[in-house]
Amino acid sequence: MMEIIKFAIPEIIFGKGSLNHAGQCTLRLGAKKVFLVSDKGIEAAGWLERLTDILKKEGIEWVFYTEVTSNPRDYQIERGAKRYLENNADVIIAIGGGSPMDTAKGIAILANNGGRIRDYEGANRVARPLPPMVLITTTAGSGSDISQFCIITDTERSVKMSIISRTLVPNISIVDPLILQTKSETLIIQSAVDAMAHAVEAYLSVIASPFTRMHSLKAIELIHSHLKSAVQTRSLDALEQLSIASVSASIAFSNASLGAEHALAHSLGGHFDLAHGTVHPILLAAVMRHNLDACTDKMADIGRIILGGQKGSDRRTALEGIDRLVEFFSGFPVSLRLRDEVGEEGRAFLDPIARMAMKDVCCLTNPKPLTHEALLNICEEVW
Amino acid sequence: MMEIIKFAIPEIIFGKGSLNHAGQCTLRLGAKKVFLVSDKGIEAAGWLERLTDILKKEGIEWVFYTEVTSNPRDYQIERGAKRYLENNADVIIAIGGGSPMDTAKGIAILANNGGRIRDYEGANRVARPLPPMVLITTTAGSGSDISQFCIITDTERSVKMSIISRTLVPNISIVDPLILQTKSETLIIQSAVDAMAHAVEAYLSVIASPFTRMHSLKAIELIHSHLKSAVQTRSLDALEQLSIASVSASIAFSNASLGAEHALAHSLGGHFDLAHGTVHPILLAAVMRHNLDACTDKMADIGRIILGGQKGSDRRTALEGIDRLVEFFSGFPVSLRLRDEVGEEGRAFLDPIARMAMKDVCCLTNPKPLTHEALLNICEEVW
Asked: Which of B1, B15, B16 sits opposite A237 (nearest CB)?
């Protein structure tokens, strides 16, 4: 018998050309002056101008904020909130990947709640409602446009903080697969493996529910089936399937949370300033093997999807599924060993990284209770 | 390649005891004085008092509106809106089945948009935002707590109007399976077959999307597996599974709409003032057979779930699935022929009923283009 399930997702506008709905959506939220968060890459690809043309048509003003880097930093959020308030903006739009969207969410928190962004680390620490948000994702992976999560780097501690709150679900998420066509192969792969990790960890989470599990399994199936062809052919059809997968994975993890893999990914990413997508092919299988005993049946569900059917016992199916997942990752130009990403000198930091990961709120929903030693062993195993 | 998909659901609080969250939820929406819509049955079962105790604890005032019947009528809505405005209420709560919830939605429309309720018949006719709504379902079927639909009887024309608008998705849906335990067997069955019809019609709808289809299939599977035991044992576990099914079916039909079966159900229900749940075991299989050629592959997906696997060709699987669905319905004390519900003298009205059904917005998403003759034939077939 289940406990109480809270399930929240934004209104989603999905499909090729859905960017064109941004103006109407923003107007509907009562916008007069939009605070528009983006980054240089999006601007260079022409999407920012496309968006401002759409806003212009609806008579909406905007002010730009493009001080966004990957792994957005606390001071960028704090400056952004100051700018938001100085400009009397009333709605926040972000267009970009996880970094601009998380920046927008962080700014929204501080604009209406004050203080420093680190005050909100953890679950349910945001008290007052946020300004309306429209998040337009340009990648198929981070899920920030759907989720209750916001990941910001605390630069003093060099750690990525997980901030989780229902109020971080934006009002409207716009997912336009046309935008993916201008993305690099690397970014498409990194986003898809992030979505795969979201789907798997949410499925195994101790607070997964019937409402999240079906979304996890759909995402795993779609990424496994379509990533290769999306990368090879850039067909809009395959990119659209990856976008569906990302939305599904995000619905799942936003409501079921994550586990040890993301706790480690945040800790590693914060310490080494790694692109988030690089760590999943390294960590995911090792974390799954670590968790296997605690959830063999669910791991076998995942195995059946990846293998296309049962292979002997549940345990065998689960293990072969994990092996096949590693095989799947190795078909792409990604690192499978940690040392290849952080360099030989990084090894000395594994102990503090495991220690920091233990504090991540994602650990709370891992299917198996975690210890510092266990997390360290996983890091050593994938070294 | 898909067109643009719009997907919206409320925040959902699900699980036994979730009713206890009603106070906090309402407070979060800024409530000072709640307009509380319910009916005599809910009051008699003690749930209304439970709810007002919860509101009292949060210091929230309320004013009652219990002028609610099954198949809620235009004048009940119009009187309710007047009461809402006179009382300066600021949030609407409904506790009950589809009737109180649809009454609440109708009142919300008129309170902020004025006019007569018939002005809003059809899709997307509601312009101004509605008062915040918390809908607490006490049945596992109508889906009004989740959906963009509101069904109100126009008493001048004796027809149930479908009003569909994104703004009719409430802010918060509370689904507490404990409440189902006080429901009659008849109501549990009628609600479940309504949810089954929602799931099937949404799955076959021409605007079904990957985001709705998985919810449809999950609902079909759960209702088929658990209705018998829910009725026989009243186990909370089985009732909870029916509630999950109802939420899933509602997410699906709210975003994919319905088809000929619901168009006929609305027309029949409006004319004869039938309980909505009585018509689905009569109509559903006949409408599925009518639509079969237009969507054999999808109908086979449904067949595989009901049959537990493929039986020969897709067409054979689909047909056997439909037969098995009829067998499933006939295991419950429900009518399978229309004459048993409306009496011999009702036959004379089938022609105008089919004509009225043709105007229902649900026809637009039926997998096969409809004609008056086709709808009449279906009515004759199930007579």
From this structure: B1
Q: Does B211 touch chain A (CB under 8 A)?
A: yes
Give me the residue spans of the domains in chain B: 11-179, 194-381
CATH number of B194-381: 1.20.1090.10
Determine phi and psi for A249, rounding to 5 degrees: -60, -35
CATH topology of domain A11-179: Rossmann fold (3.40.50)
Is the complex ipTM more than 0.85? yes
Among B249, B75, B232, B250, residue whose Cα is nearest residue B155: B75
What is the pLDDT tens value at each position of chain A, 383 positions in all?
568 999 999 999 999 999 999 999 999 999 999 999 998 989 999 999 999 999 999 999 999 999 999 899 999 999 999 999 999 999 999 999 999 999 999 999 999 999 999 999 999 999 999 999 999 999 999 999 999 999 999 999 888 999 999 999 999 999 999 999 889 999 999 999 999 999 999 999 999 999 999 999 999 999 999 999 999 999 999 999 999 999 999 999 999 999 999 999 999 999 998 988 999 999 999 999 999 999 999 999 999 999 999 999 999 999 999 999 999 999 999 999 999 999 999 999 999 999 999 999 999 999 999 999 999 999 999 99
Residue A47: CB atoms within 10 A of its CB come to 21
Q: Alpha carbon of B278 to those of B112, B283, B352: distances in Å?
A: 34, 10, 20
- The alpha-carbon gap from A196 to the nearest alpha carbon of chain B, in Å, equals 17
Q: What is the model's pTM? A: 0.95
